[in-house]
Amino acid sequence: MILDANAYIGNWPFRRMLYRTADEIMGLMDRVGIDRALVSYFDTIFLKEYSRGNRDLSEQVAPHSNRLSPLACINPAFPGWERDLRIAVKDIGMGGIVVYPNYHAYDLKQHGPTLAQAIRETNPSLLVSLQVRLEDQRRAHWLCRVPDVPIDDVVEFLNTARDLNVIIANIKAPEVQTLAGKINLSTTNAFVEISGMESPNAPVEQVVGWIGADRVLFGTYMPLKYPETALLKFRHSDLTSEQRDRILYRNLVDILNIPEQDRG
């Protein structure tokens, strides 16, 4: 069984996407044997009508609800964002959110505590995907070079949200080492996913050594990255079978509380 903690559908404004729809992403999943994926929506990042975008995403993945779990885009610096959160969770029925402090140009240190409290009041088991980056600045469009979310900001958010399920997405391996030196992830419900770990020097094994396999999730960041890239990180790894299973599916199964009969 393989669960993907970081996938997308929709349109990326600076690149022609070969895979944009839920059906096309399902095709990529089937090609490499991914059973389920958490899915965010590129389009909503650049909209002001967040609830409209969240509803569009939910409708697009609905035919594949047993395999695609949509994440609602929330901007805690935008007027009326608490209503967007309530609509996503209560009305649309989404079980997780995704936040982009850098693309939405807000200070995570300032807005993080308010966001965490709103999540507790809405649904304390809600999953939060915190995207550290979406694109390497060296490859970004020259008019849209968005800075990465500082790791110190991530640490401060985790300190205020220790009880919440948080996935730190698109994080690089050296940043995980920095993170591990500033906060003990075992005292939180935080996890890192591997799609941003591109070092050729066994980054997954290093990350497991720093924070333990029970804090690492498999993620592809498809379609901006091919899912085979993430799977290759395991092909010649020195991880034990228990560590592999933890990363590939067991950790996310526990977070999502997938029923026993649906587990691999």
Summarize the structure.
With 264 residues, the chain is of the alpha/beta class. The chain is built from ten helices and nine strands.
Can you tell me about this structure?
This protein has 264 residues and is an alpha/beta fold. 41% of the residues lie in helices and 15% in strands. The protein is built from ten helices and nine strands. The strands form two sheets. It has a six-stranded parallel β-sheet with strand order 4-5-6-7-8-9, sandwiched between helices. A three-stranded parallel β-sheet has the order 1-2-3. Strand 4 (72-73), helix 4 and strand 5 form a beta-alpha-beta unit. Helix 3 packs parallel to helix 4 (81-91) and helix 5 packs parallel to helix 6 (151-160).
Write the layout of secondary structure elements.
Elements: E1 3-9, H1 22-32, E2 36-41, H2 42-45, H3 50-61, E3 68-70, E4 72-73, H4 81-91, E5 96-99, H5 108-122, E6 127-131, H6 151-160, E7 165-169, H7 173-182, E8 189-193, H8 203-211, E9 216-217, H9 227-235, H10 241-256
Parallel strand pairs: 1-2, 2-3, 4-5, 5-6, 6-7, 7-8, 8-9
Helix pairs in contact: 3-4, 5-6, 6-7, 7-8
Q: Enumerate the strands of the largest sheet in spatial order, edge to edge or round the barrel.
A: 4-5-6-7-8-9
How would the global form be characterised? Answer: globular
- Uncertain ranges: none
Total number of beta strands: 9
Average pLDDT value? 92
Percent of sequence in beta strands: 5-15%
| Total count of helical runs of at least 4 residues | 10
Oligomeric state of shown chains: single chain
Order of helices and strands: EHEHHEEHEHEHEHEHEHH
Specify the helix fraction band: 40-55%
Radius of gyration (CA) equals 17 Å
Distance between the termini: 5 Å
Summarize the biggest pleated sheet: 6 strands, parallel
What structural category arises from helix and sheet content?
Answer: alpha/beta
